[in-house]
Amino acid sequence: MSHLSTAVVKVVPAAADGLSVTAGSSSWANGAWVELIASASANLAIVGCVAFSPAETGIECEIEVGVGGSGNEVPLGYIRWYHGNPGNGGPAHLSLPLGIGGILAGQRVSLRVRSAAISSVWEVVIVYVENPDSESITTSQLSSVPSAANSVSVTPNSSAWANSSWVEIAAALSDPSGIVGFTVSPGVWGVDYELDVGVGAASSEQVITTLRSVSATTPADTGNRRSHVMLPAVYFISGGRVSVRLRKAGTDTTDWDFAMLKYGDLLVTSRQKVTQVVLKIGRDEYIDDDTPPTANACTGGGAVATGTNPTDGTSLATATSLHAWFETTIGGTTYRWSQTAINVTTAKEPRVHRWGKCYRGLPDERGGFQAVSVDIDLIDHDNLLRTLHTTQTLKGQTGKVYIADLATILAAGNPQIRFSGVVADFRPVQGGYYQLTLEDPLSTLFSAEAQEVLLPPELIAVSDNTADQGLRAAPAPVIYGSLSDEDEAVPHGAIECPYIGAETLVPALGNLYKFLVCISPTHNVQSIFLADPASGTPPTRRSKAGASLYGTELFVPHHAGWFLPNDYSVTAAERWTFFYLEQHHPAADLAREGRIPITANVCGREETGDATGDTITNPALITLHALNTLWARIVGDNNWPALLTRDSASVFDSDAFAVVEGICDDRGYLWAFMLGHSFKQITLRDFLELVYLCGDFELFINRFGQVSATMIDRTSAYSSASSYTAVSDILKNSFEIDPKSDAVENLIRYVYKRKYVKTLEQPTPVVGSRLPADSFQEDWFSGLQEDSDSTSITALGGSPKGERPSRVLEMEFVRDQDTADDLAAQRLALRKNPNGRPEASFDVTLMKADTLELGAIITVTHPQGLGASGWVDVRCQVRGIEEDWNDMTARLTVRDVDDLLA
Amino acid sequence: MSVNYLSSPMLPLPSAAAGVTVTSNTTPWADSAWVEIDPSIANDSLLATITAFNDDNSASHQFELDIGVGGSGSEVVVTTVKGVSQLALDDIGDDPTFVLPIQIEAFTAGDRVSARIRTSTAAAIDWRVAITVIEVPYAGNLLTTANPIKVTTPGAAFVSASVGLVGWVSSAYQTVIASAAADLVLVGFAGFSNQRWEIDLAIGSAGNEVVFATVRGLSVSFHGQVMFTQPLDVIASGDRVSMRLRSSTIAVGGHCALMYIEKPL
Prior knowledge:
By secondary structure, chain A is mainly β. Chain A has eleven helices and 55 strands.
């Protein structure tokens, strides 16, 4: 059989007016069945329809075909019709892309009509073939969406060729379904138009196809009989929500109406035939004979959502009388507690006995993230706190500490937020006080003993019972950047893609083995590497899949033959990147059994979340994106979400991340990694340490309680840095300095470009081959790299005595050599000084600290600084700020970075 | 093989813009100039639909539309469709889109795509022309061919038949193809008549015609085309193909042309 037909095309009624069929007497109610064929002369298939309503204008209907005796008609399907006008001319004949089969010789065939036009009369002729021999005949039900209801209305954009809004036409089609076309009731005739068909949730619609025509009739004109816009073949989709949007010539905004003609549970009758074809594809045609498709580049860069930061408040720089208060809102009641009563504007109760110190800092030497925690001792003179403690309503609330000058308070101005956090603990303590502990939102996830937050968070729950890898509950890997070896002379694939299970997603394609790339969509799956049967029996190596394999036996997102509407799959309400291999392909079982796992080159997470954006490669953007999507937000089957907010402000200081992004760009830093490789999770704390190690930038909590980032721009002179000078700024007897002479590293040892693909076991090792000596040699393509400073080594006693080697830095997020080498060079510059890199601490008034933030570069002048004249305008990086709101001072910890800057 | 289905998008050319304007020659059935639709098509592509439309409401126009590839002055026809547009006041549109039941392997990446038209009328009429394509490789199962669609009575009017004074009585047969040059797959029919009518298509010598398809028109003045979504594989090399008309009204004419592809596909 083929698509072609040799059967005679006939019409019924023949040589007579069409069959008169009357719609029901209420809107969209079925009319009575009317006999079309008393007894079919042979097996029949309906291939077309000709219909109009002689007396009506601009109405639509559904013509239902049924078989069986009077009163026992069995419906075979509906043909949706839009009828413009019974006036002059126009096409009246609709050819169905798939004929409606299943009418057997001897059966009675009847029609009935339903329409919004009550009791409207329709004249119908059916086009059919006897003994159909085309395979484009189905017994699947043809129907319309909406069904038994008016078409959906789409309001055109008032600008020519601009898209209308998406309008849902089907909330959830069954899987699979086949779209064949639409009825069209245009708002204006004679205009070119395009109709996009989209799938996906509201606001995340993805265009799967576009139909194009010119409007040929409207209800108002005396135009043509019918109005359909049809597809050249059934468009297969795997069910779900379907929407349409319109763009057209002209600015008319009269509504257009559309209804969809579709088959449900399609292709069922063709499965056996299709399977036979799949099996007959030549087994001798192996991948070496076939040129692989061109690997599309990992277009890098990308963008990440930005957020709104809190307002800064009135500067404290010229304040004369500072006041602090804690503020939280519980159940609509806002509590404001201070040390002394403030009874102007919004009153603050005198409930604070003592403020604990608020220390915020940049990461420690290993990159360990510095949590922020503030204890506040409160007076419970009226049992309010006891009540709040009993009901536990305070814990978990967002709380802020505000500070303002009295003048600002009296003027009802904006106070400064000095810290914003979450009430992590609230308990009675000695002295009859209650102690409230405020923590930053990130640190509430850390715990000294309990299991910390693990990344990546999603676990594989998609295996079926045939999964050999036992991957259930293993973490679903997350990929960022370009995991690809396409630029190498002989690429082998950068990651392994485990077998997940077997599925029959598209009946026509038979049973397919399913392989996991990662969770979430990707920018691209560049190439696939399969066991190559030509390499021996059993095979000993992989080869890149050839072009002809795609769409015939190998089905990969972003490649020819991918059968889903988007370049990702949706499973368990999450977006994943899977690919499929026909189960009888020689490489399929080798991969399933783990003997020769399939590998791939992949461009990882992209900027939009629907597989259409650029790969995110900038370290700052990846960090922000990963924290927002892996820690802060549940993403689900959606595009990437906006940054998480708390109290209407972003949890992340996206402005600070943007600054770091720019410096990373200037340095040419690229990240590429798989989080969850080897199906192991890492803690959030370890992730943050890796950010410091692999990005040379530091994460911290700013005074708004946001996760922020800072990075020294070593090309800048920071000429406008604020100055902090003894006597005038630095409080008396507060200056202390630590040379940090024991924190020297003058030999940086590092590895990068993790090896995610295991070497295939060979039956006989190559003669003379050596076993790996160190773990990093087998896990890292880079091998051990070193960068040293001979001046420093000489100053400390020469090699090897004077060498101060770093630990082997495993640059987990880095595959790019330039990035890795520069990271090592930056670290060496920071730590090579043989006398160490001094850090000083000193006190300033809170007015002087004002809006100073961690990571800022300031100049410090103090006689107790190192050197012959002490420190004179030495440029330092602020690494710690400890605020004391009892006496309104801040203790700054700064590091001398003068020699690192321009 | 399985049913024809598709899971790849159709892409309009031009996209998000009115169709290109092709102005017919003032000499009947003479070619217009070629008009570029796309200077360089992005990928190898199948031709899936063709839309042709005019705003003229003063006359009916039979037309043949060529789609071609190649540089300016070197265009090669890759397919031709034949149709008719309506004349009366608001009946401008008819069915302006030919949905090809066999997709034509028409375009190679980089091809310049253009269109030209010839019509039955001696007037310079502006036609808006657009196509949709399916990029290759595609996801799905389509019957495709590199052969062009051709039309009957090329560069000439439709074949006509007339009925007498009794309703629903068939006219005499009129020859559409005297002798098929090859085995043919019939993909479409274009025609028009008046009121309710049927046109039989038949194979066989004069007096021995055997009907293989009946096309039904149901309108005051049907103008348009019927694409055979299950293309008819019934015409052998050397066959004579003819048509005849029946109508609910009397003393009217019926007119038709056929669109076909030569085998092997």
